[in-house]
Specification:
The structure holds 2 protein chains of 2 kinds.
Chain A lengths: L1 H18 L8 H23 L3 H6 L8 H19 L5 H8 L5 H12 L1 H29 L3 H6 L8 H8 L4 H24 L1
Chain B lengths: L1 H16 L8 H21 L2 H9 L1 H30 L1
The chains are: A mainly alpha, B mainly alpha.
C-alpha cells in the first residue's frame, strides 16, 4: 500500500509539473519515457535471469493460464455492457469500442477519433489511461482481492511493457511469461476489436 | 515494442551470466525507475491541454467505463485463478 501511495505521489507531482509547464520536456518526454522503460525492462529481465529457481517455477505453470486473454476480453466486454446501461446516451458499441482499447490508449484513441470523432476518442484516451493507472496503483490490492492473475488482466495490452514491472513485484516472477503472452495477444487484438466495434 | 523486449531478454541473459555475483540493488533500481516513469506519464498528461480539459467534462464517463471494464476483467481473472488453483491441489 505504501508503495502505491509513493507511486501516486510521483504521478500527481508529474501532472502538476506538466500542467504548470515547470519541466518543459515537450515531445522529448516520450523519448525519455522510452529509455526509462528500456532500463526498467532490462532490470526486470535481470532479476529473472538471476533467479536460479525460475525454470522450475515456469514448469509448474498451469496450461489453463493460456485462457487468460480470453477471460480479460470477456470480462472487459461484460463491464462495458454494465457501463452502457448506466450511460444512457452512449450506445453499447461505443462503450465496447472504448473498453476494448485494453489500456492501449495511444492506438485506441487514434482509431476511435478517426471512426467516431474527437469526443469519443478523448473518452477512449482518458478511459485507457485510467485503466493503466488502476493497474499501476492498485496492483497490490487487486492481488489481495482477486488473486495473482488480476493485475495481468487489468493491465490488458500493457502487460508486456509498462505494467510488467509492477506485475513482477505483486504477482511474482513466475507469472512474467503469462504477463508477456497476455500483453502480446491483447496488443495484437486491439486494432481489430476496436475497428469492429466502431463499425457496428 | 520489439526493442523494449530485446532489452528484457538482454537483461535475462546478463542476469543469468552474473547470477553467482548478483547486483544487489535490483529491487531498489526497479522502484526508482517505476517512479520516474509515472512522473513522466504525469508530465505528459498534465501538459496535454486537450486531455486536461477532457478530464473534467468527459472524465466521469471515461472513469465509469474504465472502472467497470477493469472490474469485469479482474473478476474473470479471479474465476480462472480459482479454477487453476483448484486443479493443482
Amino acid at each position: 500500500m505504501k508503495g502505491s501511495l509513493i507511486i501516486l505521489l510521483f504521478f500527481l507531482l508529474g501532472i502538476g509539473c506538466g500542467y504548470m509547464n515547470l519541466l518543459p520536456v515537450g515531445d522529448g518526454g516520450e523519448d525519455i519515457s522510452f529509455y526509462a522503460l528500456c532500463a526498467l525492462l532490462f532490470f526486470v529481465g535481470y532479476s529473472i535471469g538471476n533467479d536460479a529457481d525460475i525454470v522450475t517455477k515456469f514448469k509448474q505453470l498451469n496450461p489453463g493460464l493460456a485462457l487468460l486473454p480470453l477471460m480479460t476480453f470477456l470480462g472487459t466486454l461484460s463491464g462495458c455492457l454494465v457501463a452502457a446501461l448506466i450511460l444512457h446516451h452512449r450506445s453499447l458499441a461505443d462503450c465496447m469500442a472504448v473498453g476494448s482499447g485494453f489500456g492501449y490508449y495511444s492506438l485506441s484513441s487514434i482509431f476511435i477519433t478517426q471512426y467516431k470523432g474527437a469526443e469519443l476518442g478523448t473518452i477512449a484516451l482518458v478511459a485507457n489511461v485510467v485503466r493503466e493507472l488502476i493497474t499501476l496503483l492498485g496492483a497490490p490490492l487487486l492481488v489481495r482481492w482477486f488473486g495473482k492473475l488480476a493485475p495481468i488482466s487489468a493491465g490488458g495490452a500493457t502487460t508486456m511493457d509498462t505494467t510488467l514491472p509492477i506485475i513482477t513485484q505483486t504477482s511474482g516472477k513466475e507469472l512474467v511469461p503469462v504477463s508477456i503472452y497476455h500483453g502480446f495477444v491483447m496488443d495484437f487484438s486491439v486494432p481489430f476489436v476496436v475497428t469492429f466495434f466502431c463499425q457496428l | 515494442m520489439l526493442i523494449v523486449l530485446a532489452f528484457m531478454f538482454g537483461g535475462i541473459l546478463i542476469g543469468f551470466l552474473t547470477r553467482k555475483k548478483p547486483f544487489r540493488y535490483t529491487q531498489q533500481t526497479l522502484a526508482v525507475l517505476v517512479w520516474a516513469l509515472l512522473f513522466l506519464l504525469g508530465i505528459m498528461i498534465g501538459g496535454n491541454e486537450q486531455l486536461m480539459k477532457g478530464l473534467g467534462a468527459i472524465g466521469l464517463e471515461a472513469f465509469i467505463i474504465a472502472t467497470l471494464a477493469t472490474l469485469g476483467s479482474v473478476t474473470a481473472a479471479a474465476c480462472l485463478w480459482h479454477f487453476v488453483r483448484h486443479k493443482n491441489k
